[in-house]
Design a protein that fits this description.
mainly beta, 12% helix, single chain
């Protein structure tokens, strides 16, 4: 059970920084960190989802996949992706920070 900050920048727009809570490997809640309102959980990702995204980009292979990892905890802290040079608007950038454990609700 953990939480972290996630920012996604893509063709569909720049999404405000999100606070993502993950329970049992599933996005449990997502809070827009600028408006402090709950948003659709589909906007969140788990850390495992991000590792899967990176692995998929490597296997395709993507035109560009650049990943930086947190030196202490090993999670992907930045992901820069471009699926194909010929495909406009498929670029996406993720930034992850402040990954920390949280106590589950009982």
């Amino acid at each position: 059970t953990s939480a972290f900050m996630l920012q996604r920048v893509w063709f569909g727009g720049t999404v405000h920084p999100l606070y993502v809570a993950v329970v049992n490997h599933t996005v449990a809640a997502v809070l827009d960190f600028e408006t402090f309102e709950g948003v659709d959980r589909e906007l969140g990702e788990t850390i495992e989802d991000l590792f899967t995204f990176v692995q998929g980009a490597i296997e395709r292979p993507a035109q560009l996949i650049r990943v930086e990892y947190d030196a202490a905890k090993g999670f992907p802290s930045e992901i820069d992706y471009d699926g194909a040079a010929q495909t406009p608007d498929d670029e996406i950038f993720f930034r992850v920070s402040d990954v920390h454990p949280i106590a589950p609700r009982t």
